[in-house]
Amino acid sequence: MKFRILAIAALLAVSCNGGGKLVCNYNAADISTTPDEHTMLAGFAARNDLSTGLHLPLYTHCLVLGDGTDRVCIISNDLMEIQPDLSLEWRKEIAQKSGLPLDRIFMHCIHTHSAPRNGGWRAEPGGSNYSHKERLHKVLVENAVKTITDEGAFRPFRMEVGKAQTSINGNRCEITGPVDRDVYVVRFLELSGEPIVSVMNLACHPVCMGPRSLLVSSDYPGVAGKILREAWGGDVFQLTGAAGNMDPERGPKMVEYAEECGRSLADSILRIKFEPVRGKGEFKVVNDTVSLPFRIAEVTPEAVEAHAAEISRWDKTVSASWKEDVQGWKELILSRFPEGKVKNTLDFTMGAVNVNGIVFFFTQGEPFCEYQMQAREHFQGRTVIFAGYTNGQNSYLPSAHAYEYRKGYEYEIDQMHIYIKAPYPLSDTMPEAFAGAIDKTIEQAL
User: Which backbone phi and psi does 263 adopt, to 5 degrees?
Assistant: First the structure.
């Protein structure tokens, strides 16, 4: 096995047709439920019944890009989330089997709330989601490893990029709050012009199908992707942007709304006049970690006890079981102190990939849309593809505006830490730290 990994690593160093020429390989694999699988779908606490059928297939998409010395693997899954620990475990497995370094593997989820859960007791042996999770794991890893290591399948490519506006999304917490309706599309083409794969990027929760829907689906991205594939050829997948405060404009409904939004999005994209990307051979991958501050400088057992006593008395909460939830959180956090597992910051990983001047930015968590708007403003003249939900979904990241406005953002600001099992709520200085880290990471990739 060690010899095989070293051989693959050597191939990575000398392959790609040499001379710094950019090449790519792409594959997708089906990760849908089978007809006899009825799973608990992710994302809505109000959903209590198992899935009843399939609206659209779910896929794991893998795009590998590189030059003669470096490669990057971009995976986009039609799932709601993969928890950070599990995402890291699967990425390590891909790295071990392919020889590609761990920090060159970005694992994104589009955040559809109509995909099976892959964590919790439902995904344990005997649970309704166990068989799907086991198959998901196998197919996802195999598809990525195959795409990374199939040397004969890599080919040169050219790119084109376009921008549209969509009307499908809106701020889910404020009627007149910040909204980013920009849609970016990057298309990877054979040198002959035949499409290989196209990447859509916008900020909107894929939650057109709400808690009453029991159908497995990739929601509006799957609907739009199907239409675009039929129009263009090649495959199409989504990287969901900074959608922490972005929902479909009319909120979660049923499958008909997913069809409506997907058609509307596809219609906007089909009107794009794409511009060719000048092939300068730029290729650079950077990774970084930002330490986000809590409201106190040092989290101690005494601080956790006092905080739990204070917030357990609140009346306006996200759940009727709030007091029990706080008690469970307190006991869990206190149990971590003897093991040295309580940190004084919430650490987030992020990265950026520069491909011919187009920047693909990735971050953990659910940033609010203002972060991607600010990044694009700061790097005018560049196309920045902004993808949250990458390498593990672990926290909302409210904007500075949300901390100032507060009304409607109580969960994200004051209550979320109870449910993500963070030791304390984030500070209102967090937005400045996070935005600064975004700029730094993108700058390093240029």
Answer: -65, -40
What radius of gyration do the chain's Cα atoms show? 21
The two tokens of residue 261 are 């939004």
Find, among 347, 355, 205, 176, the residue nearest to 277 by Cα.
Answer: 355
Question: Tell me, what DSSP letter sits at residue 413?
Answer: I
Distance separating alpha carbons of residues 355 and 335, to the nearest angstrom: 45
Task: Please say if the pLDDT value at position 400 is more than 90.
Answer: yes
Question: pLDDT (tens digit, 9 = 90+) per residue, 305-338?
Answer: 999 999 999 988 888 899 999 999 999 999 999 9
Write the CA distances from 237 to 26, 27, 48, 323, 343, integer angstroms.
11, 11, 29, 41, 36
- Report pLDDT digits (tens) over 149-197: 999 999 999 999 999 999 999 999 898 999 999 999 999 999 999 999 9
Assess contact for 178 and 295: CB atoms under 8 A.
no
Does residue 178 sit in helix, strand or coil?
A: coil
Cβ neighbours around 350 below 10 Å, total: 26
- Closest to 375 in 3D by CA, of 292, 433, 288, 438: 438
282 closest CA partner among 123, 66, 59: 66
Q: Which DSSP helix (H) or strand (E) runs through 254?
A: none
> What integer pLDDT is reported at residue 20 of this predicted model?
63
Nearest Cα to Cα of residue 222 among 257, 270, 259: 259
CA 117-118-119 angle, 5° bins: 95
Give the C-alpha distances (Å, rounded to integers) separating 355 from 42, 125, 131, 146, 189: 33, 42, 38, 22, 14
**DSSP state for residue 352 in the 8-state scheme:** E
Q: Coil, strand, or helix at residue 368? A: coil
Tokens describing residue 155:
């080919």
Structural tokens at position 131: 């068989």
Q: What is the rounded average pLDDT for all residues in the chain?
A: 94
Q: What angle do CA 432, 113, 289 make, to 5 degrees?
A: 30
**For helices 430-445 and 369-378, angle between their N-to-C axes, nearest 10 degrees:** 40
Structure token pair of residue 233: 């050829």
Q: Coil, strand or helix: which one is 249?
A: coil
H runs (alpha helix) in 116-274:
130-149, 219-232, 255-270
Phi, psi of 108 (to 5 degrees): -105, 150
At 283 the three-state DSSP class reads: strand
Q: Which helix (H) or strand (E) holds 418?
A: helix 416-420
Q: How confident is the model at residue 5 (pLDDT cuts 50, 70, 90)?
A: very low
